[in-house]
Structures are given as C-alpha cells and as structure tokens.
Specification:
Shape: globular
Number of helices: 0
Largest sheet: 7 strands, mixed
Distance between the termini: 40 Å
Strand content: over 45%
C-alpha cells in the first residue's frame, strides 16, 4: 500500500516563504505526474502546480511567479517552494501523484498553510 507523506506547512507572515515536501513510498508504479492542490475553507480543491515526468510544469494563475514546483521522478519526490505568500494562500495543501493513463492515483493527508500577521 502506497503512502504519501507531506511536510513543511505552518504559520507564516505575509511576504514570507515556506517549502512543502512530498514523498510517495511503497508504490510499485513509476509515477509520471505529481502535483500540489489546495483547499481553502468553503472552497473547492484547486490545482496549484503540476510536474510531469518530462519536467513540464504548470501553475495556477494565482501562484505564477511566486511558487515553484520541483521533484525527483525516480524517487517519487515533489517539492513546492512558496515565496511572497499572501493571506489568500491560506489552505490545506495536498500532494497528488498518479500514473497517467491508469487508475493509479494517490493523495496525501494534507498539510496546513496559514498566512497571517
């Protein structure tokens, strides 16, 4: 059974930075699509950033220029560097990993990010 471990969330002041980490262990599949999603209170879960096996990245418009996704496809690792954080970034952040073209998909439990002065 695969496990998704997230870390790095916390409380930060506006303008600050955080780095989220995600590791998928126990999967027998080579995962070729990893990403970060977030869900704020009263809102739907939304995509934040995606990293594909060819290192292609995609970001939501609200985080472009502030967030950077990176990772290691071989080790099933993903990171999200978040700079210049805003109160609107406050949410639970979830790591997602999947093997495209198959039903194989894993979600983490989520890590809370709170941006407040």
């Amino acid at each position: 059974q695969a496990q998704v471990m997230e870390s790095g969330g916390g409380l930060v002041q506006p303008g600050g930075s955080l780095r989220l980490s995600c590791e998928v262990s126990g999967s027998r599949y080579r995962l070729n699509h990893m990403g970060w999603y977030r869900q704020a209170p009263g809102k739907e879960r939304e995509m934040v950033a995606i990293l594909t096996s060819r290192m292609y990245t995609n970001y939501s418009d609200s985080v472009k220029g502030r967030f950077t996704i990176s990772g290691d496809r071989i080790k099933n690792l993903a990171y999200l560097q978040m700079n210049n954080l805003e109160p609107e970034d406050t949410a639970v952040y979830y790591c997602n990993a999947r093997k495209l073209g198959t039903p194989v998909e894993y979600w983490g439990q989520g890590t809370q990010v709170t941006v407040s002065s």
